[in-house]
Sequence to fold (128 residues):
Amino acid sequence: MQQINLMLPVMLNKFFEPVEMDATTFFNRWKQLNSPGQEEQKIFKATYPINQDNSRTKLLGFGFGLLDGVDPNPDNFVGAGIIKAQSSQVGCLLRLEPNMQAQMYRLTLRTSSNSVTTRLADLLLKLF
Fold:
């Protein structure tokens, strides 16, 4: 018998499951995720031209459930999802605010796991 060790990429979005909720539930959960390390905010220049349809497709493709009507600004995206692993689950909430004129975004994430928050923000940043 031979054993071969391979380093294969593990895509986080393959473990992501979208979650649907109303605005009240979203904001209640958002307020609960307020411990140090549970929030990550990034303000960054868009790598690609900002397009609402493309942004929506990217977030859905990543695995977030998009919650329409939760944010008073219709240009902003609000999403929720759960990362499901064999031994644990991590709740993830997202707010993505595009600034069309400046071609910039503000991404705010809150998760139930300090170790996931920054890594997830870094992965999403690369999409936009």
